Amino acid sequence: MKGLTSSEIGIAALGAVAVAAAATLPLFNQGYYLTLALNIVLYAALCTAWTLFSGPTHYVSLATAAFFGLGTYAVGLGLDHLPFPVLVLAGGAVAAVLAGLVGAATLRISGVYFVIFTFGLAELVRQVVSYAQIKITSRMGIYVFTDFTEKHIYWMLLALTVAVFVTGWLINRSRFGFAMQIIGNDETVARHSGINTARLKITLFMISGAFIGMAGAILAPRYSYVEPPAAFNPMISFLVVIMALLGGTRRLWGPLVGVIPFSILMDFVSVRFPNDTFIVIGIAFLLIVYLLPDGVTGRLEQLRARLRQPDAAAEPAALKEPA
Amino acid sequence: METIVTGVLLGGTYALVALGLTLQYGVARIMNLANGETFVAACFIAFWLFASYQLSPLYGLFVIAPAAFVINWTIYVVLLRPLVARAKNPGMLEVDSILATFGLLFLFQGLMLRGFGGAYTSYAYLSDRFEIFGAFYGLNRVVAFAAAVVIALALYVFLFWTRYGTAVRAVAVSPGAANLVGIDVSRAAALTFALGGALTACGGTLLSTFYTFNASMGVVFTMKALIIVIMGGVGDVRGAVVAALILGIAETSVARLVDPGLTLAATYGLFIFVLLVRPQGFFGRRQA
Amino acid sequence: MTATVLSVAGARKAFGGLVAVNDVSFDVHDGELLGLIGPNGSGKTTMLNLISGALKPDAGSIALAGERISGLAEHQIARRGVARTFQLVRMLPAMDAERNVMAGALFGHRRLKDSAARDLARELLSFVGLSGREHVPVAALTYIDQKRVELARALASDPRVLLLDEWLAGLNPSELDTGIRLIETLNRQKRTIIMVEHVMDAIRSLCARCVVMNTGRKIKEGKVDDVLADPEVIEAYLGDDDA
Q1: Within a 10 A sphere around the Cβ of A186, how many other Cβ atoms?
Q2: Does residue A65 sit at the B interface (CB-CB below 8 Å)?
Q3: In total, how many domains does chain B have?
Q4: pTM for this predicted structure
Q5: From the centroid of its chain, how far is CA A182?
Q6: Where are the domains of chain A?
Q7: What is the pLDDT of residues B24-37, one digit of tens each?
Q8: Do A123 and B226 lie within an 8 Å CB cutoff?
Q9: What is the ipTM of this complex?
Q10: Which A residues in the span 188-247 are in contact with C, Cβ-Cβ below 8 Å?
């Protein structure tokens, strides 16, 4: 394992300070700002976990809501039987299993099939869970009663976000991370270099899914009644993609740059123009695709590179991908 | 037996949507996630024409299809062609087109929700009974199926019997090679994308005669169309039709014999089966 | 009798109606530099793809030192010691030369520790003539330099068989000279190599033996001079009116 560079230590210190500062928020406000902050931290965790996989592989996963909902349901179903921390881990595990199955079925083939499959996955899981629930318990929802208040959930999500970042950082410096970068650069070369691309992609997808599942589990106590349409809300999948892409997926902290402003924007829109949320989301996607294909961080890095070497800004001639 | 016939009738309409998407993805190489919105918009326009002007949906086809053609053509030229120019490889184009059409999906659905509201809508058109092999079906379903067959046949004639249709098929096989033999690939892609949109709109118009629809339904139909296209083999017209009929039958069977709440599970089950067993689809030609 | 490193028996691959490789058999001996030649479209690259596992043969078998590799996944074949270069060079575009080469030394036939892999990458880049340029992003390298990086990457895995797919294509005369000399050095180091080439001078000067393919079939095998003088081979390249 390589040692830590001084810049890495610096970033870690900054991060620790930021987290500590964020953790003190509930001491000052337990109303509107805490709710907003909770949303931000939730999506910070979700988007960063999403980027763990979709960043290096360039596979757009729309399965977030499925993993999230499974985590929520793990808590909802098990709360009378098992302690909460165990259920959080269980939620992560169940989500990871689903990710493994989905990955095994679709990641060996092509990115497009993957996107399509995950596109409807949340709906599929929701249908199956609803069906099973009505058959077994003849009710649609589950009651979740705990002593947790918003501030506890906030702190747990903050801890989860830190865990996601640390995991991502560890992966990036490891051989696993290097292999994933190779896969993202050119999968054919990866395979010919001895990398079992399918297995690695599936593994990374499972890690990403596990964190998303845990986020869902942690959030379960927030609402005393959990129902499939809310737990498996496809909006979650779409918002995660927007925020992560907006921020930029080349860097682990890229999504954060998208999460904070967009959460605030969505909050604003859902209050002032509740009928127009879809339109806002649509425009956001279009803006990202056409103006910010590498996200805000990508655009900033381009500007930085151009400022450093104004004559090297032209694209080098050599590289053309064979069709 | 009754289930099968109902399934086939439903599958006919699915086939039109799938054909639309097949053209858009197989030829223009655009994975159009907003396809379902064209479909739903057509449902609403057909309804509006029928409710306000008593215009039969069958005549409505002649209004809606050209309108959809023009709108989709505009979308391709203004929004999607720049992505084609920008993409460094086919993989990038696919991702970009997915994200862009995803944005369009939200935009259109948002506009439709604003315009038509979120309520479920349906209207009565030709809801008399029609007998086939001793069982009764809605006349509207039968007529819709017949219309779908006519349209599909027209498409077949275009693709396989006309010169330009052959050019379109060439682009589906290899845009690069088609370019080299003098086909204006860019124009063919735009026109085919527009044609795909028109076909999908026909599907929507016909479906609205016997199905209850609402503004949020587009996503479900896009998904079904995508699954059909992949099951049938990307770019393959026969495959799309066969897969659509199979899906129609499977869905209807599950809805009747198992549980109407599990139709999507059935669709996905079929999808998974195809992905695992024959990923290039029934008639697919690309190496998986 | 030198050992047989690679053995191809009755290999066949068809794409729809087109049979790209039709019942081809040949052996490659330890330390040999075997030429694989033939006119365009004769199936040479498909043959390499079958060996490296990019494609699976429809029939026949391919064995590496007696162990069957046909039917295995690419990464498994790579781990057993098959490395290649590509007809259109494939770089890892977001990385520098050193990391591109390291990719070959970490996951496949050779699995070194990071520091050892880095040292090896440096050594190999120097061998192919790119010393001092380890940290140049490969996107900024010229085509010929990218080819060198690709060769270094293939060598990084210490392959038992190295497949060169028209590695000398597109080079000007002085680059060609350097390239031929590089391969010559590899030959002297007793590397087993299969070389698909169109540059006949290279085949003549480098290979002792070669295999000729035409429209998917093997039409001749033997000493280079004999093969290149054979009327059937000449006809395959030039067409019968010019033979």
Answers
A1: 20
A2: no
A3: 1
A4: 0.85
A5: 22
A6: 6-233
A7: 988 888 889 899 99
A8: no
A9: 0.90
A10: 188-197
